[in-house]
Amino acid sequence: MVGVKALRICDIASADYIGREVTLRGWVYRLRKQKGNTFVLLRDDRGSIIQCVFPSYKIDDITRESSVQISGIVKQDARAPEGGIEIAGTNLQVFQVSEKDYPLGEYQSAELLLDNRHLALRTRKMIEIAKIRASMFKFLRQWFSENDWMEVTPPLVVKGSVEGGSTLFKLNYFDDVAFLSQSAQLYLEAMIFSLGPVWSLTSSFRAERSRTVRHLAEFSHLECEAPWVSLRDLLQIQENLVRYTIDKTINERQESLKVLKIDSSQFKELAEPFRKMTYDQAIGGLISLDFQVTEVDGKARTIRWGDDLNIDSERELTRQMTTPLFITGYPTKVKPFYVKENPDQLETSLTFDLLGPRGYGELSSGGMREDNLPALSNRIRQAGLNSVDYGWYLDLRKYGSVEHGGFGMGIERLLRWFIGIEDIKDCVLFPRTMSRISP
Ligand code: ATP
Ligand code: MG
Fold first, then answer.
1. In this structure, which residue's CA is closest to atom 7 in ligand 1?
2. Are 30 and 51 in contact (CB under 8 A)?
3. pLDDT (tens digit, 9 = 90+) per residue, 261-314?
4. Is 432 a member of any domain?
5. Ligand 1 pocket, 369 CB below 6 A?
């Protein structure tokens, strides 16, 4: 690797190193002092861990999380806690002795870990989640690159809302007001006329006031948009992208999956086509179960046609499923102003949501966009939006409008389902929610 010369623990795992002297840099992950020997678990800068055994008289007063350089002989030892090799230490050099009040012990409350996220990144769980996350980013990007989509970077400070005003973050913009982007979609739509199929992976911001296990105020949003696609094409693109990313990530992150105790055989069925259901079928099924929803005034009633699906109804629909589920044809009125109505079934839209199995719920949303100027102007008006803010967006329907569509997928949602973690805050390194903006 250019510029980085230090050996890592993964480098010395091969048989070539047995019996050789190596020097490793890292941090003291755990320390166990016995009369004769001291066992130092060393964590390197990629989070791998190896046991180093020193005669106790050679070890000064080091502490957990001290930064050190260790030299010693690589030995094979089946009893070694990590990977069957350990280091018979010969020399330990300290860069800095960590202060004794390191706030994280072995068992901590979730809140304490969140308050100390800058340090909790050193825990095994966060290290492995970060690695899986990095692989997902890599393979998502790789899929788009292999399939000839162009990566673009939309602006994150914007004037208009995409997903509705209630979740907009407002900011002072010189002498004006602006918002943090909820979605890149409208900008991606502008790009397809000269750049063809485009995609982006940026932060999106939503001032989500509800505290749920699947909402962040800032999340990593993968979005794509293409001209002359159909709803069917979009489902296929979405399905291929997820399958490819999960397959490759499983392959690359065997070790991380093992540490997190994730059984990758549960993803075998992803090779099969994803399940598909219309919104009508989904609602029909929920009605037959007498599925209850709560009105704004707190009253409960049976779900009915026209209700949006939420975290609870999606959980019910996917609880028993083992592969992702596409739901198509949502009522137009539960979707944002830009969705295209289905000409063959008015009041429903050419849209889909992809739901994660085992109750995980919405992973992505997408569909065809309204490409007709009067229809779109109408919808902007009906949604109570200011058409002045959407002037440029309407231009796209004036000058060479074409059928087009795309989708947006939250990476933390994908990761949450993949690693089987309930709380989405653990799927991002520094979570932002209504009650948390630090560290
Ligand atoms: P939900 O119904 O779960 O609130 P949404 O339908 O409002 O989500 P979309 O506008 O469809 O969300 O955004 C596209 C995708 O972005 C979603 O399918 C989801 O994967 C992700 N996403 C949306 N909002 C959030 C959030 N607050 N935190 C994390 N991911 C999100
Ligand atoms: Mg959605």
1. 163
2. no
3. 999 999 999 999 999 999 999 999 999 999 999 998 999 999 999 999 999 999
4. no
5. no
